[in-house]
Amino acid sequence: MKIKKEPADSTVVSKIWNIQKVALLPGLKIGDYNDSDWILAYLLTALASFDEQILSIRKDLGIKEIYNYSSLKNLHELVKTFYSLGQENYLMSVKAAQKIIRRYRLGENWLISIQASFFTDTLPVPDKIDSIKIETNNSLSDRDSSYCSIRVNQKITTNELKKWIKKNKLWIRHNLNNLPKINKPKIDSNTVLWGHFAWILKKGGMNSWTEMTKFIQKHIDEFGSAYDVNSAPEPVDLERYYKRFVSSLRKVDN
């Protein structure tokens, strides 16, 4: 089954080799990250707008050579790369990363990961962040402009706290509605895997879903064990995964 040739899609990068690798932050293991952040990392690396911003920021920072992420042994070595061009450039990289975080509605846990994408060949999946957390007095001076907290000034019981929250739920709801919404793409693992494969093959000039399926099946032994798969999807399913994948890219980009 042939598909119609479509106009160039400016949503995704034009050269698949520009795509950064996705990996965990040094020291992270299964359970230390949110699945939605892993998926979001894959989507971000495929976005033309993200790719363009990374390249532009590298130019602004004067980064001429990037580090091989896999050669960095721990988080300390990764963060050291952020200072490789001096303190002033480090502060510039922080501001640039914060701008990207706002642009794509990411959580505050993405700061190191976005900075890593400036200095290395990889966009690391960040450590997970809890939706609710207790702030101590020591951290109150370091508030972000998008911030909402409940401060307890004297010893109370959990029942008293529950009653207070129930009594003030309208006020709490109002303040929560004013906070930025975190980008959490709703996309299943099959769409990420097969949709991304189909997109890469389309970029390589393959426009038949049947040919794509045959190609994937032929080479599945080379990558299948890494993704716990042993057969390619049917052509009609591959097309559906591809459309969902590109749709998810556009939602992240908006």
Quick structural gist:
The protein is mainly alpha-helical and 254 residues long. It has 10 helices and 2 strands, in the order E-H-H-H-H-H-E-H-H-H-H-H.
Characterization of this structure:
The chain has 254 residues and is mainly α. The protein has two domains: 1-131, no CATH class; 186-254, no CATH class. The chain has helices at residues 35-46, 48-61, 75-82, 87-103, 111-119, 158-167, 169-177, 189-203, 209-227, 235-253, and strands spanning 21-24, 122-125. Mean pLDDT is 78; it is low at 1-8 and 136-145.
Q: What's the structural domain tally?
A: 2
Mean pLDDT across all residues, rounded?
78
Could you tell me how far the N terminus lies from the C terminus, measured between alpha carbons in angstroms?
Answer: 32 Å
Indicate the low-confidence ranges by residue numbers: 1-8, 136-145
Radius of gyration in whole Å, from Cα? 22 Å
Helical content stands at 40-55%
Kindly state the number of beta strands: 2
The number of helical segments is 10
Shape: globular
